[in-house]
Design goal:
The complex is a heterodimer. Chain A has one domain (about 5-40, about 95-365): TIM Barrel (Alpha-Beta Barrel), CATH 3.20.20. In chain A, about 30% of the residues lie in helices and about 20% in strands. Chain A is built from 11 helices and 19 strands. In chain A, strands 7-8-9-10-11-12-13-14 form an 8-stranded mixed beta sheet. A 3-stranded antiparallel beta sheet of chain A has the order 1-6-5, with no helix packed on it. Chain A starts with 6 loop residues before the first helix and ends in a 12-residue tail after the last strand. Chain B has a single domain, classed as Rossmann fold (3-Layer(aba) Sandwich), CATH 3.40.50. Chain B has 10 helices and 14 strands. In chain B, helix 2 (about 50-65) crosses helix 5. Chain B is globular and about 45 Å long. Classes of the chains: A alpha/beta, B alpha/beta. The interface of A and B includes residues 69, 72, 78, 144 and 299 of A.
Chain lengths: ~375, ~325
């Protein structure tokens, strides 16, 4: 079997990435000279994109579907975009609050350079407020409340290259709210042949999304449920704009994967899972991977139990029955639903356990047995 | 209303005040729907407060509202020397439309005269930068009188999940202070309608930007209903030296007017309801539509009343203008 990476090198890199996965850069920085040099960042204003002037020094943000009306000296719902005298600014440009070297499987992205490390960053802020957010300590705070580093786009790309990461991820919080920064990082990354990935809730308007796409290589969307009620009650957002984003991404040919966090009693009904799966198959196509991941009690939803594994298994079965070819189970190490199988001959292609990856019957983006092309970005 | 009726209700207020002293837990200001407004047009000129007249106006407000000749005695009845008292100002809108430094200073002076040690007094708001831009001099907690933003004071480490709210609370309302005097300003708010007493405590949480949708309803009321917020407020005094009936929360020269007033109540809902009424009167005088017509009726006030935080019914609110 032919691997993109020699097996020994691949496993070494994979193990290294796994070790780093649990190691935030604040810790890692102590041993990495290049990153040690990053100074702490003061808050500064950087002109925001996608907003409109309104009467009385008010602005309307048109970055996300929320369309916040923001008065002078106020901020949008995200907490990181501020009106100063009738002009709109981002407060987080060049100010990441966290930097990690992760395995790409952690995102999770299963059809994108599997087994590689991905240089990952976030600023504070989010344009929704999910009651189950696992990163709320950085996503739901304002720039003043979290230490950040001074790292312009060029510096981020330099760090990624130093770590020999083939790609960058904008993740952990909501990249839409640091749009200007992420876009420029993407532009810089492409200059150096690095791929650029966004892990997002998909809550963005069409125009900024389309302007962002030339600087992206892959997107993972958190589809948090398939009902407006869930989005209203637990996300503080709307479902339809997320579905619109998914359609736009796929139509644009952007490699897209979907994560559906299964939360007991809230979005785990068979009908909802089936309806969502049929929608994905029909509107996006059966080759878009869907990951059903396990919920763990977090943030404002600590009273619920973790998702039963059987529920995840059942969701996977429903989605496959609806015609989806690549359906995964996440946050359950050792579950057979972590692996990639050929939808044609059912051969095991990529074996995974947690963040460990092993190529089995897979070569050059094809099933080694039947030759079926497997969609994704493999090199 | 006539003085006889007001002071008759004030006797009831005195009883409620005694209850406040005996029970410093939970929203303590729900049984006395009296609101007092005093005015002195000479206390302010083009937004600049006269320190002497502002102090005198404050004392008159306390005398009138509590039907007492001695404002210091009133404060002594509200606060003990063991209290650590937070003075929550609103400093979002610079020198012109923030809580005037002269008022906060006069309140702090009254507290000291009433026996609260100066090092037990904290003037605070959301951020140091806001305080500075509003003209306050920063002093760390422990100095007399301290003045600091929540960004300097810090937030409690545990997420507080209370009704619709999920926030980190400023240490100014959790462990640093045992009591609060709330000093909001009287102004319009472009999203929630009016920003007065209850909404002022959005400055006590780390994520106020998350609680403006739906005109702040029910978030303003839900936050205020928490024991560490409304439960610690012993008195609310609205800085109405200025009034801005449109274009808030930022200062808008087109709409900001000298008003020369101070308002007090121990009922946060009644006070917000009266403040809203004053805003509407000013809007009418300016030829502006009502807040309901403008699509931003402050329904959170009604929600607060439904939670038992105070009186929203104008027929039951006892308004006294002196």
């Amino acid at each position: 079997m032919k691997h993109k990476f020699p097996r020994r090198d691949f496993l070494a890199a994979s193990a290294s990435a796994c070790a780093l996965a649990a190691c935030p850069l604040r810790g890692w920085m102590r041993s990495a000279r290049a990153v040690e040099a990053l100074p702490e960042a003061e808050i500064h204003l950087h002109p925001a994109l996608h907003w409109e002037k309104q009467p009385g020094r008010r602005v309307k943000c048109t970055l996300c579907p929320r369309e916040c009306l923001v008065d002078d000296l106020e901020r949008g719902y995200c907490g990181v975009r501020e009106n100063r005298g009738g002009d709109y600014f981002t407060l987080v440009y060049g100010r990441p609050c966290t930097l990690h070297l992760d395995p790409v499987e952690k995102k999770p992205m299963f059809h994108f350079l599997p087994g590689t490390a991905i240089f990952s960053l976030a600023t504070v802020g989010c344009n929704v407020n999910c009651k189950f957010c696992q990163n709320w300590q950085i996503s739901q705070v304002r720039p003043e409340q979290e230490k950040s580093w001074d790292a312009p786009p060029e510096k981020i790309v330099e760090l990624a290259r130093q770590q020999q990461a083939p790609s960058l991820a904008h993740t952990y919080t909501e990249p839409v709210v640091f749009y200007e920064y992420a876009k420029e990082i993407g532009r810089e990354a492409h200059k150096h042949n690095l791929k650029n990935v966004v892990i997002s809730n998909g809550y963005i308007q069409e125009k900024p999304l389309l302007e962002w796409l030339p600087f992206l290589d892959a997107v993972k969307i958190d589809l948090k449920a398939f009902t407006e009620r869930f989005y209203q009650d637990l996300v503080n957002g709307e479902l339809q704009p997320v579905l619109d984003t998914l359609k736009r991404l796929v139509r644009a040919g952007m490699w897209t994967e979907i994560v559906y966090l299964v939360i007991p009693t809230h979005n785990d009904g068979e009908a909802e899972i089936r309806e969502m799966s049929r929608w994905v198959a029909g509107e996006l196509g059966p080759e878009v991977p869907v990951h059903f991941t396990r919920f763990h009690p977090q943030y404002m939803m600590k009273a619920l139990p973790p998702t039963p594994v059987d529920t995840l298994t059942a969701a996977r079965d429903l989605a496959r029955a609806a015609g989806l070819h690549y359906v995964y189970v996440g946050n359950v190490p050792g579950h057979p639903g972590e692996h990639t199988y050929c939808p044609g001959c059912q051969t095991l292609l990529i074996r995974r356990s947690g963040f460990r990856v092993e190529f089995a019957g897979f070569s050059d983006g094809k099933c080694a047995r039947c030759g079926r092309k497997i969609p994704g970005i493999w090199s | 209303m006539d003085r006889r009726r007001f002071f008759a209700s004030a006797l009831g207020g005195a009883a409620a005040l005694a209850a406040v002293r005996c029970s410093h837990t939970g929203p303590a200001t729900t049984r006395d729907p009296r609101v007092t407004l005093v005015r002195d047009p000479a206390a302010v000129s083009a937004g600049q407060a006269d320190p002497g007249r502002t102090g005198a106006l404050l004392e008159r407000l306390i005398r009138e509202h509590f039907n007492s000749a001695d404002p210091v005695a009133v404060f002594r009845s509200l606060f003990s020397p063991r209290d650590r008292v937070g003075i929550k100002i609103n400093g979002l809108s610079g020198r012109r439309l923030s809580t005037h430094v002269e008022l906060a200073r006069a309140v702090a002076d009254l507290l000291v005269q009433a026996g609260v040690p100066a090092q037990n007094i904290l003037i605070w708001d959301r951020m140091n930068a806001d305080l500075r831009s509003a003209g306050y001099t920063l002093r760390p907690w422990g100095e007399a009188v301290a003045c600091a933003g929540c960004d300097a004071l810090g937030y409690g480490g545990d997420l507080v999940v209370h009704r619709s709210i999920g926030s980190l609370f400023s240490r100014a309302v959790t462990d640093l202070c045992t009591a609060q005097i709330n000093l909001p300003v009287l102004k319009d708010h472009g999203i929630v309608g009016v920003t007065l007493g209850m909404k002022n405590f959005f400055g006590a949480i780390h994520n106020p930007n998350k609680y403006h949708p739906d005109r702040g309803d029910p978030y303003v009321a839900d936050l205020y209903s928490h024991p560490d917020i409304g439960g610690k407020v012993r008195l609310t005094i609205v800085d109405a030296l200025e009034i801005q009936p449109e274009g808030g929360p930022p200062y808008q020269p087109r709409w900001c007017r000298d008003f020369g007033g101070l308002m007090a109540s121990t009922d946060p809902v009644a006070l917000d309801r009266l403040g809203w009424k004053l805003i509407e009167e000013q809007r009418f005088a300016e030829g502006l539509p009502t807040l309901a017509e403008a699509g931003r009726e402050p329904t959170y006030i009604r929600t607060a009343a439904a939670l038992g935080l105070g009186e929203n019914d104008m027929s039951r609110i006892v308004f006294h203008e002196a």
